[in-house]
């Protein structure tokens, strides 16, 4: 299965930037050129959990063999979600 890491990373970025466009001043062609030719990687928005930033960085690996599979991404996201739910529940119970 061919998985588009650029789209995944952009969607994650949009979620944590609260809906902002990742490349507002660039056309699609300019964006692709910047990513492919200049190896540009956008910084994750402030407040993005470290676990999510780390996962996105793995997806940006230059060598495709170093990128996680979609199954691995899914597994890491589930683990993160479970941790977040547990943390939220524990915090709510203390109040």
TrEMBL record:
It comes from Setaria digitata. The lineage of its organism: Eukaryota, Metazoa, Ecdysozoa, Nematoda, Chromadorea. InterPro entries: Kinase-like_dom_sf (IPR011009), RTK (IPR050122), Ser-Thr/Tyr_kinase_cat_dom (IPR001245). One of its GO terms (biological process) is cell surface receptor protein tyrosine kinase signaling pathway. This is Serine-threonine/tyrosine-protein kinase catalytic domain-containing protein. Residues 12-77 form the Serine-threonine/tyrosine-protein kinase catalytic domain. SUPFAM superfamilies: Protein kinase-like (PK-like). One of its GO terms (cellular component) is plasma membrane. It comes from the Eukaryota. One of its GO terms (molecular function) is transmembrane receptor protein tyrosine kinase activity. Transmembrane segments: none annotated.
